[in-house]
């Protein structure tokens, strides 16, 4: 099971950002003017800073969703979780990151699904100790470790 460790979040720091408009995955044109701006998580990525947290992913149960061991998940606790959302859940006294499946709610249970066939689906029944702690809105993935 992939675990997630909640980290301290600071939203008052701006990082310099150099970018080319319409960034392409090919070769950039040398004629394009490069612009300088700042990367501001509050402005660019975080809708609810007072309810947003970071978590470091541990494990490989979400690998097919592009979430790998060591990635940082940006978690918004103010969002209502919907079917199919990637969520951070508190199950059996630990945090886990999984896909929320609400399709069995009428039958009295929900499921937390991994994005890796090597891991089992977690069935959560009405009496289980369970909480959706937050909705994952972004992940930060290192391309080179």
Describe this structure in words.
With 145 residues, the chain is mostly beta strands. The chain has two domains: 3-8 and 48-140, Umud Fragment, subunit A, CATH 2.10.109.10; 14-44, no CATH class. The chain contains one helix and ten strands. It has one helix spanning 41-44, and strands at residues 3-7, 14-19, 35-40, 52-58, 72-76, 86-91, 94-101, 109-113, 122-125, 130-140. Strands 1-4-5-10-6-7-8-9 form an eight-stranded antiparallel sheet, with no helix packed on it. It is globular and about 50 Å long. The two termini are 22 Å apart. Residues 15-24 have low confidence and may be disordered.
Which range does the strand content fall in?
A: 35-45%
Tell me which CATH architecture of the largest domain applies here. Ribbon
Using the alpha-carbon principal axes, give the shape.
Answer: globular
Number of helices: 1
Total beta-strand segments: 10
How much helical structure, as a percent, in the residues? under 10%
Spatial strand sequence of the major β-sheet: 1-4-5-10-6-7-8-9
Task: Look at the structure and name the CATH superfamily of the largest domain.
Answer: Umud Fragment, subunit A
On the 0 to 100 scale, the average pLDDT is 83
What is the highest CATH level, the class of the largest domain?
Answer: Mainly Beta
Q: State the distance separating the first and last CA atoms.
A: 22 Å
Radius of gyration: 18 Å
Q: Give the class from helix and strand content and strand pairing.
A: mainly beta
